[in-house]
Design goal:
The complex is a heterodimer of chains A (214) and B (117).
Chain A: H1 2-14, H2 18-21, H3 33-59, H4 72-75, H5 78-103, H6 107-137, H7 146-177, H8 186-212
Chain B: H1 2-17, H2 22-44, H3 51-70, H4 78-101
Helix pairs in contact in B: 2-3
Classes of the chains: A mainly alpha (214), B mainly alpha (117).
Chain lengths: 214, 117
C-alpha cells in the first residue's frame, strides 16, 4: 500500500514512470503525447505549405498590369540550387544518424551528427540568402510583382522553418553536452529529427515544383 | 549464456522493428542522392513530354522514402501515419480548391486587367 502511494507520488512528481522505459506508455494511444503532438503539427504544417505552394503556382507567371520586372523563374540558377538541395537532403542522413547514436548511448557521435546537421542547414540558409541577394540585385524584390511576392513568401517561410530547426539542433547539442539530455530521453532528439526531415520533404516538393518544372 | 543470447536477439529484433541500421540509412541516402541527380539531369537534358511526369514521380518517390525511412513512419504506429496523411490530403484539397476557384488552368496571358492579374 505504501509502495503504491509512493509510486503514484513519483509519477505525479516526474510525469514519467517505468512504463515509459518499456514502451508501455500510460496514454490512451500508448504513444507519447510529445510525438503525437509533433506529428499533428507536421500534418497542419502541410496545410500551410500546401497553401503557399498553391499560391505560387497560381502567380508564378503573373506580374500584373501596374507592375513589371522579371519573375523568379527567369532568374533561377538551377545548378546552384541543386547543390543547396543536395546539402539539405544529406542533412536528413546526419540527423537520423544523430538519433540512432543517442539511442545507442553514443553521446559523442550524437553531438557530432547534431552539429553536422546544424552546419549543413546553415549552409543551405547561406545559399538561400545568397540566392535572394542575387535576385534583389537583378531587380526582383519582394514587392516587385505578384510572382516575386509569392516566391519570396514560400521560400522565405521554408527558410524560417530551417532556421528554427538549426536553433533547435544547437539547443539539443548544448543539452547533450551539458549532460541534461541522455539516452533515456532519446525521443526528444527523434522529435526534433521529425521536424528536420519535414523541412527536407517540403524542400523536395519546392525544388521539383517551383524550380525544376518549367 | 542462453539468456544473454536471447536477450541480445530480442534487443536486435526490437531495434530492427524501429528502423534501419546506420549502413541502411546511408544506402537510403545514396538512393535519394541518385534520384536528385536524375531530377537535376532533366534541367540539362530535354526529356520531352515525359519531363514533367517523371519529375513529379521522382518527387513523390523521394518524399515517400524520406517519410518512410528517415521519419520512421514505415516502422512506427499507424496513428502517426493517419495524422500526417490527413494533413497531406487536406493540403491537396486546398490546392485543388484554390486552383479550381481561381482558374488555375487559365492562360495568364488571357487574363483581363483586373487587380489580380
Amino acid at each position: 500500500m505504501a509502495d503504491t502511494a509512493e509510486t503514484q507520488t513519483s509519477e505525479l512528481a516526474y510525469g514519467r514512470t517505468d512504463w515509459d522505459d518499456h514502451h508501455h506508455l500510460p496514454t490512451n494511444t500508448g504513444l507519447t503525447n510529445e510525438k503525437v503532438t509533433m506529428w499533428a503539427f507536421l500534418g497542419s504544417d502541410c496545410l500551410l505549405f500546401g497553401a503557399l505552394i498553391s499560391t505560387y503556382l497560381l502567380c508564378r507567371n503573373r506580374v500584373g498590369p501596374a507592375t513589371k520586372g522579371p519573375t523568379a523563374a527567369d532568374l533561377f540558377d538551377i545548378p546552384f540550387t541543386s547543390v543547396s538541395s543536395f546539402v539539405l537532403l544529406m542533412s536528413s542522413l546526419t540527423m537520423v544518424l544523430a538519433v540512432t547514436s543517442i539511442q545507442r548511448a553514443e553521446m559523442e557521435r550524437c553531438k557530432l551528427w547534431l552539429l553536422t546537421t546544424a552546419a549543413l542547414g546553415s549552409i543551405f540558409i547561406a545559399g538561400q540568402v545568397y540566392e535572394f541577394t542575387g535576385f534583389y540585385r537583378e531587380g526582383l524584390g519582394f514587392t516587385t510583382n505578384i510572382s516575386s511576392s509569392a516566391f519570396f513568401t514560400l521560400t522565405g517561410f521554408h527558410g524560417v522553418h530551417v532556421s528554427l530547426g538549426i536553433v533547435m539542433l544547437v539547443t539539443m547539442w548544448v543539452l547533450v553536452t551539458r549532460g541534461n539530455l541522455g539516452p533515456e530521453r532519446a525521443e526528444t532528439i527523434e522529435i526534433i529529427g521529425l521536424y528536420w526531415h519535414f523541412v527536407d520533404i517540403v524542400w523536395i516538393v519546392i525544388f521539383a515544383v517551383v524550380y525544376l518544372i518549367p | 549464456m542462453n539468456t544473454a543470447t536471447v536477450s541480445e536477439d530480442e534487443t536486435h529484433q526490437e531495434h530492427s522493428d524501429h528502423g534501419l541500421s546506420d549502413v541502411g540509412y546511408i544506402k537510403v541516402a545514396l538512393i535519394l542522392a541518385i534520384l536528385t541527380g536524375v531530377e537535376v539531369a532533366t534541367y540539362f537534358v530535354d526529356f520531352g513530354v515525359v519531363e514533367i511526369p517523371s519529375l513529379l514521380i521522382l518527387m513523390v518517390v523521394k518524399f515517400q522514402i524520406v517519410v518512410s525511412y528517415f521519419m520512421h513512419l514505415k516502422f512506427d504506429s499507424k496513428v502517426f501515419s493517419y495524422l500526417f496523411v490527413t494533413g497531406l490530403i487536406l493540403a491537396v484539397v486546398v490546392f485543388a480548391a484554390m486552383g479550381t476557384s481561381l482558374a488555375f488552368w487559365q492562360d495568364p496571358a488571357g487574363c483581363d486587367a483586373s487587380a489580380f492579374c
